[in-house]
Write a structure and sequence with these properties.
The protein is an alpha+beta fold and 977 residues long. Among the domains are: 236 residues, Cytochrome Bc1 Complex, Chain A, domain 1; 200 residues, Cytochrome Bc1 Complex, Chain A, domain 1 (2-Layer Sandwich); 205 residues, Cytochrome Bc1 Complex, Chain A, domain 1 (2-Layer Sandwich). Helix 1 crosses helix 18, helix 30 packs across helix 35 and helix 30 packs across helix 36. The longest helix has 21 residues. The radius of gyration is 29 Å and the shape is globular.
Length: 977
């Protein structure tokens, strides 16, 4: 059998290479004095450069919008962490935001001796085992860090990026990569490159002990994530040798507590070298001009030999291994199989098999388990890394179903696959849907940047030809080959993980050290930053939507029709947008959930799903509080088929009592699971605080009402939906005239619309005294949210709110982030936002959030309250925040069917034109005094409702009472069932 598999793999590999050579070939070209590689027939027209120092530069131009996405990708992650210092690559990622000897400091000469002393103290701390001595050393670290902070400037990097119009500053670390990502307007190329060139020249690891505490918080958040704990333990068994299983990205608690700045610097010097890095740009630029600028920016980098992680091959798994994890969240079962290296024939096959098992519509799991409601939910996925992949089967059990029973159902689908019990036509449908996904992926600069970053990490981009050829190669795979491969791959060679409900008695947390708040120096600015911000740029003229020109308005019968043309490809997206929702008819949401399981007089539910998948089209019924949508999308060539099928479904859908009983069981089980989800609990608290005991979150059918739902009521709701007022929107290749003619034939409309039942109206609460709503949940962390309703919408506050949010609490350069996380190390995650309502008759709300260790909750609350009551002034931060909003409005382009989103949103607020026109005009005169006055009137010294989700074993009632009158809310009160 091994010989047969090897022969099949060799033949497939030859096929891939022949395809890549014939259609997608590597070529070399020269332009502007630089030589680059490209792949023929590449729709992205991407160029791959290698500079003299070895730096890879990947340029993928797209001039539709004046914005650029950037990635700096380093081929080093947790796999390359030293065995005695796991989590190091992730630490380093955080420190690359701290500046250099030119920015992030007000006086480098005076700061440096303190940082050198901190380095030495950490080395001493690392080698000391006596706890009393360690505490004394840490006191010295804390003291010296405070002294050093008199010269450091926190968050100067983030302020610079905001000031030049950056909008997505972030980074991540994974097994074999660390990636820094940014988005910025194309008129800031020179300024952006100056920042990045300096950022990677000589990073200084300042403000370390507070950042270390943020990483502690990140670790503790992971300890509250049952899925994360299950994955870590399963990966450890799946990869007993490889660091995929032996080293986690965030590191062990022992290593987190004993960091070495010397080790981190050694890691940087070893792996952050140009021949191990890629600068990736997608968006609005001239590649001939861009490559010259990138070369000049990073020419200082010097190539060094790099020895990447090269583990011994894993031995084959020969048995079934089991993992049990306990925690408060819903139960689930996961099954992991070890896959193959990236861009191999085997990985291509496993990606195909994943779609055979589950593709959202017509896979074996979709049809046999989800469609027949045999589990609460089930699916398959394939996660690809460089050296191996992970093929995953997962399920949540239904009410009364055991984890073993759910696992058995999953494995039965694998046996059907191995037996060839699937339609061969499914393979063609998978390829058609892959082509559609391919079109959609390359229509977005962010997606393309991610794709090319992954390409570099895996193969330095050298396999881009194979990736482009993969769809065509998938089309060549036969059913017989799939079955042969499946029988070789799926054996008793997996890890099975059970997530049980219950107390995790092994949970530990990273204990907080004593930290004295550092000086953030928000009012100081380095010369480097001054020069960046003050350097001239060619302005970008804003381009607002002209609804009368950018949308074509028409009529089909009694329905309004809005269209905008897709001139880029053959994709269409169409919606029937109804002016009713769950606030009008509670049953609408339940009818929407019922619909996927129903047949018509012509087709079974399974045949309907397969039919849509076969033509690479999608439809769904989406119900919101105030609007309901029937959405249809896919390739224009299949428009008539898709719309005809949707119309047939809603006109001819039939009741299915068994499906309804299963659905009721699913709903009731979902409700149980929701009560185990801390995020859902916080949502319930928020709605309760905003509207009171009867609110949008809990105004649902009771469990008894769910049990008494009648099929005839749901069917009536579905069949009569088209009789309610709705607007038809279309984005696609056809213009208004041709589209209207097409839809008129398909979409049956009444002579006049049926009046809708009045919508449920909720009454806003008034916060006249501080109060606390508490929900008990077994967790390491505490989640705290502030809420205050602040009055009805008005058109005059829009610009003030945008600048206030950007300055105060909207990002890593904001006052809230800088104070709560950077200065005081009170949380990993924190924000504050003045939230605008979506309708003119609704209220604004002020919301703030801190997620902290439970034993830091009081300090975290006090820290946020200080900011809510007294707005710190930082003129440079304010200027950057205001410029960021202006830059965004100037460079943002609303395209495609996004114009419909803006049109309806503005209409609900009382505008018949693009409201951003007013905002842009009103932004210019705003000063810090304006925002300070706004803060004083709307935010400061006001009563708030504190929403706390935490364990009553870890937070004290008397501590919460310091914030306000405490009310412990039950889950029944929050959820309404």
């Amino acid at each position: 059998m091994k010989i047969k598999l090897l022969s099949f793999v060799c033949l497939l590999f030859v096929s891939v290479n022949l395809m890549a050579q014939s259609t997608y070939q590597w070529k070399t070209a020269t332009a502007g004095g630089y030589t680059y590689k490209y792949v023929t027939n590449d729709p992205s027209k991407t160029r791959f450069y290698t500079l003299k120092n070895g730096l890879t530069v990947i340029l993928s131009p797209d001039t539709k919008e004046p914005n650029i996405e950037f990635r700096m990708s380093i081929r080093a992650g947790s796999n390359t962490d030293p065995k005695n210092a796991t989590g190091l690559a992730h630490y380093l990622e955080h420190l690359l935001f701290k500046g250099t000897d030119k920015f992030g400091t007000a006086n480098w000469a005076k700061e440096k001796p303190y940082l050198d002393k901190i380095d030495a103290l950490y080395e001493k701390y690392n080698k000391t085992t006596d706890e009393a001595q360690r505490k004394e050393i840490y006191k010295e670290i804390d003291k010296t860090s405070g002294e050093a902070s008199n010269f450091s400037i926190a968050n100067e990097y983030d302020k610079m990026i905001a000031a030049i119009g950056g909008n997505s500053s972030n980074a991540h670390t994974w097994y074999e990569e660390t990636v820094y990502n940014e988005g910025f307007p194309s008129n800031s190329i020179d300024r952006f490159l100056a920042i990045q060139g300096e950022r990677f020249r000589k990073p200084i690891f300042r403000i370390f002990h507070t950042e270390l505490e943020a990483v502690y918080e990140e670790k503790n958040r992971g300890l509250d994530n049952d899925g994360n704990k299950l994955d870590e333990q399963m990966m450890e068994l799946l990869f007993p040798t490889h660091n995929y299983g032996q080293q986690t990205t965030i590191g062990t608690i022992e290593h987190l507590k004993n960091p070495s700045l010397v080790e981190i610097r050694n890691y940087y010097n070893k792996y952050y070298v140009p021949n191990n890095m890629a600068a990736i740009f997608t968006g609005d630029f001239n590649p001939d001009e861009m490559i010259k600028k990138v070369d000049k920016t990073f020419a200082y980098m010097v190539s060094k030999p790099v020895s990447l992680y090269n583990p011994a091959p894993e031995k084959p798994l020969t048995g079934i291994q089991k993992v049990d994890v306990y925690g408060p969240s819903a139960e689930a079962v996961e099954i992991y199989y070890r896959g193959y290296a990236d861009n191999t024939p085997q990985s291509l096959m496993l990606d195909l098999i994943k779609s055979i098992l589950t593709n959202g519509k017509a896979g074996l799991i979709d049809i046999n388990l989800n469609k027949q409601q045999k589990t609460q939910r089930a699916g398959a996925s394939y996660q690809q890394m460089k050296d191996y992949g992970v093929f995953n089967l997962s399920a949540q059990p239904r009410q009364g179903q055991t984890l073993d029973q759910a696992a058995k159902l999953l494995l039965e689908q694998v046996e059907l696959l191995k037996a060839g019990k699937f339609d061969e036509g499914l393979l063609k449908a998978i390829v058609a849907n892959q082509k559609l996904s391919f079109l959609q992926a390359f229509d977005d600069n962010n997606n393309r940047a991610e794709i090319f970053s992954n390409q570099f990490v895996i193969s330095r981009g050298n396999d881009w030809n194979k990736s482009l050829a993969s769809i065509d190669e998938t089309a060549k795979i036969t059913k017989a080959q799939v079955v042969a491969f499946a029988n070789q791959f799926f054996k008793d060679n997996y890890i099975i993980g059970y997530k049980h409900k219950g107390e995790d008695k092994n949970t530990v947390k990273v204990e907080k050290p004593t930290i004295t708040p550092i000086n953030a120096n928000g009012n100081l600015t380095s010369d480097f930053v001054k020069n960046i911000i003050e350097s001239p740029v060619k302005p970008i003229a804003p381009k607002f939507i002209d609804y009368k020109k950018d949308i074509a308005f028409g009529k089909v019968g009694v329905a309004d029709v809005l269209t905008t043309k897709n001139v880029d490809n053959s994709i269409f997206r169409m919606s029937y947008r109804f002016n009713i929702g769950a606030n009008n008819y509670k049953l609408l949401s339940y009818a929407s959930s019922y619909l996927p399981f129903l047949s018509t007089d012509k087709y079974t539910a399974e045949e309907i799903s397969k039919a849509f998948y076969d033509i690479a089209c999608t439809y769904n019924l989406s119900v919101g509080a105030e609007n309901t949508y029937i959405n249809i999308s896919g390739l224009q060539e299949n428009f008539d088929k898709a719309v005809s099928l949707v119309e047939h479904i809603f006109a001819n859908v039939k009741a299915d009592e068994k499906a309804l009983e299963n659905l009721k069981s699913t709903i009731l089980k979902n409700r149980e699971n929701n009560k185990l989800n801390k995020g859902q609990i916080m949502n319930g608290l928020t709605s309760y605080a905003q509207y009171g005991a009867v609110n949008p979150f809990n105004n649902v059918l009771s469990n008894d009402e769910v049990k008494n739902i009648k099929s005839e009521d749901l069917i009536y709701t579905l069949k009569n939906l088209n009789n309610y007022e709705h607007t038809i929107t279309y984005y696609g290749p056809k213009d208004l005239t041709f589209f209207s003619a097409d839809i008129k034939k398909q979409h049956l409309l009444p002579k006049e619309f049926t009046p809708a039942a009045p919508a449920k109206v909720y009454t806003y609460t008034t916060q006249d005294a501080n109060k606390v709503y508490f929900a008990n949940y077994d967790m390491v962390q505490s989640e705290i949210r502030w809420l205050r309703n602040t009055g009805l919408y008005n058109k005059t506050d829009g610009a003030n709110i945008e600048v206030f949010n950007n300055y105060f609490g909207g990002g890593m350069g904001s006052i809230v982030f800088q104070t709560i996380r950077e200065s005081k190390a009170l949380a990993y995650s924190t924000f504050a936002q003045y939230v605008k309502p979506d309708k003119a008759d609704k209220q604004y709300s002020m919301i703030a959030y801190v997620g902290s260790q439970a034993d830091k909750m009081t300090d975290a609350v006090n820290g946020m309250n200080e900011l809510l009551n007294v707005l710190p002034q930082s003129d440079k931060s304010f200027d950057g925040a205001k410029n960021n909003v202006l830059s965004y409005l100037e460079s943002n382009r609303v395209t495609k069917d996004g114009v419909f989103t803006y049109y309806f949103a503005d209409k609900k607020l009382g505008y018949d034109y693009d409201s951003r026109i007013d905002m842009y005009r009103e932004l210019k005169p705003i000063t810090f005094a304006t925002i300070k006055d706004f803060h004083a009137q709307k935010v400061a010294n006001k009563p708030y409702t504190y929403l706390i989700v935490a364990s009553d074993k870890k937070v004290k009632q008397e501590d919460m009472q310091k914030f306000g009158t405490v009310t412990t809310l039950t889950l029944e009160q929050l959820f309404g069932y």
